[in-house]
Amino acid sequence: xxxxxxxxxxxxxxxxxxxxxxxxxxxxxxxxxxxxxxxxxxxxxxxxxxxxxxxxxxxxxxxxxxxxxxxxxxxxxxxxxxxxxxxxxxxxxxxxxxxxxxxxxxxxxxxxxxxxxxxxxxxxxxxxxxxxxxxxxxxxxxxxxxxxxxxxxxxxxxxxxxxxxxxxxxxxxxxxxxxxxxxxxxxxxxxxxxxxxxxxxxxxxxxxxxxxxxxxxxxxxxxxxxxxxxxxxxxxxxxxxxx
Length: 243
Description:
Blueprint: E1 2-6, H1 13-26, E2 30-33, H2 44-54, E3 55-58, H3 62-67, H4 78-90, H5 93-100, E4 105-108, E5 111-114, H6 130-134, E6 146-149, E7 155-160, E8 165-167, E9 172-174, E10 180-185, E11 198-204, E12 209-215, H7 219-228, H8 234-241
Parallel strand pairs: 1-2, 2-3, 5-6, 6-10
Antiparallel strand pairs: 1-11, 4-5, 7-8, 7-10, 9-12, 11-12
Helix pairs in contact: 7-8
């Protein structure tokens, strides 16, 4: 089965539409979202309405948790809080209910879907450095064979051993059945690796193969919406740099 794994859309409708268009040509069998449907962007309701139909598995991100009252706004800096408050007012009630019912993680056989670290997932710890991945070593026995994460807006693969972790720097990778892995899938709506194109992953569960993809989208339109909504211009300008 070919599974589209997306994360951190952050209410960026233009980026999501570009990703879904490409995925339609890639012939995937199912869609999984690892959270952060909202925050930063100007189309929270539209993004949720699209994904709630397409995704048979979806996970709560930290921005989603804040909107639903499951995470304190004080965890966010001023501009991010401003967007969260705007989002809470702008999105329809049924969309907020959908977010509130999402789980913090989901396990399917030897796969774990989660927004941040699989250890204490409701705390939304990051896994985007080798040091952070190495911190999972002491939890090795409880890790699933493959853990897919979002949250960092970066693309990473870590191979976890009982006594150490390694980073694997490739765009396409076939995972061995005898090893354990953590895969950070990047961000659809706000990449932070200095490549502004939307990022996502396709996972072939039969071949245990991960494929990383990038797709350009209409940044001008997404940025204009942020500014027209009266949201901080910073969240529009950073779309161009992917930072």
